[in-house]
Amino acid sequence: MMPELKLEPEARSAHEAAREILLEQWDPFRFLWEEMHQQEYEGHVDRVLWMAARGAGASDIAFYLEETERDSMGVRRTPESRMKTAQEVLAVLQG
Q1: Using CA atoms, how far apart are residues 3 and 66, in angstroms rounded to an integer?
Q2: Which of 12, 44, 49, 75 has its CA 20 to 30 A from that of 92?
């Protein structure tokens, strides 16, 4: 189990930016953002942040996004779109 993230104000801003990137690019049809799935979606955002904080690269994050698409969403994005999303999330988090 992943530890709960405790975020300072500047990290909270990066978290929100990463969340928006994931929502707009990775889940544009809001499969996971429906009210009944919001907690699950936030768990995926937290997982991506946790991975990034531990040095995961864009390919690791893109792989996680692919697994989640397959296992939770029932849709598949292109590898290029997942990589672009992962790279943008890392760029936001790295400032």
Answers
A1: 23
A2: 75
Distance CA 12, CA 35 (A): 22
- Cα–Cα distance between 85 and 42 in angstroms, integer? 16
pLDDT digits (tens, 9 = 90+) for 77-87: 899 999 999 99
* CA 54 centroid distance within chain: 14
Tokens of 17: 């930016």
Specify the DSSP class assigned to residue 76.
-
- Could you state, in order of their start, the residue ranges of all structural domains in the chain? 10-26+35-94
In degrees rounded to 5, what are phi and psi of residue 93? -70, -30
Q: Where are the alpha helices (DSSP H) in 1-95?
A: 9-21, 38-53, 58-68, 79-94
pTM of the model: 0.78
Q: How far is CA 82 from CA 6, 7, 18, 47, 76, in A?
A: 27, 25, 14, 15, 9
